[in-house]
Amino acid sequence: MMPAPFANRAAVAALRARMGKRAAPIKLGGTLASAQEALMALVEFDTAGGCWLWAHSLTRSGYGVFRQGGRAHRAHRAAYRIFRGEDPGDLMVCHRCDTPACINPAHLWLGTAADNAADRDAKGRRADVRPPVLWGAANHASKLTPARVQFIRENPDMPAKVLSGMFGVSGNAIGEVRRGGTWR
Ligand SMILES: [Zn+2]
């Protein structure tokens, strides 16, 4: 049996159904931190796979999209530019996780169209079974779960201010987690 083209297809379909076709403009100007915050405000965390799923408008094929300055932008390309500090230019921004809606910069890599096709073929031959997607932020609980602690520790370059906004905790709490102290 052919595997589904995208590992998290069902999750993306559920996300799209919930979000509808909302396409409010988001602001990506200003400082780097504010651009990061604007993107982070529009994701939900797949705590199982580590994906940052775009919880806003999606294209038919499941890519995150937003409108800014009168044109549509691909969210994962914007995330690559804003978090990695590198303009992808003519290259494709590809997903290690096979989840088009994901904008986690750690899951993105730059490639040519041929690279992307070869990668998809290689993955299609694997009988890859992934754990079910857990919707970390369907509830915006002000709690640091083990998954969120792990997330914070795996992203040392993200500003504490962004993380505290994402998880509804103080900057001090983020600092505690980073120092390896208690986090409850
Ligand atoms: Zn991902």
Task: Give a verbal description of the structure.
Helix content is 37%, strand content 13%. It has 184 residues and is α+β, with helices and mostly antiparallel strands. It has two domains: 9-137, Alpha-Beta Complex (Homing Intron 3 (I-Ppo) Encoded Endonuclease, Chain A), CATH 3.90.75; 140-184. The chain has a two-stranded antiparallel ribbon. The protein has a two-stranded antiparallel ribbon with strand order 3-4. A two-stranded antiparallel ribbon has the order 5-6. Strand 3 (65-68) and strand 4 form a beta hairpin. Helix 2 packs antiparallel against helix 3 (75-84) and helix 6 crosses helix 7. The model is unreliable at 1-8, 21-25 and 125-142 (pLDDT under 50). The structure holds zinc ion. Zinc ion (ZN) is lined by residues 51, 97, 99, 102, 104, 107.
N- and C-termini, Cα separation: 45 Å
| Tally of individual domains | 2
Name the strands of the widest sheet in spatial order. 1-2
- Coarse morphology: globular
And the CATH topology of the largest domain? Homing Intron 3 (I-Ppo) Encoded Endonuclease, Chain A
Are there runs of 5+ residues with pLDDT below 50, and where? 1-8, 21-25, 125-142
Give the ordered list of helices and strands: HHEEEEHEEHHHH
Judged by helices, strands and strand pairing, the structural class is alpha+beta
Please tally the β strands and state the result: 6
Hetero compounds: zinc ion
CATH architecture of the largest domain: Alpha-Beta Complex
| Broad CATH class of the largest domain | Alpha Beta
Main sheet summary:
2 strands, antiparallel
Number of helices: 7
Strand content: 5-15%
State Rg.
17 Å
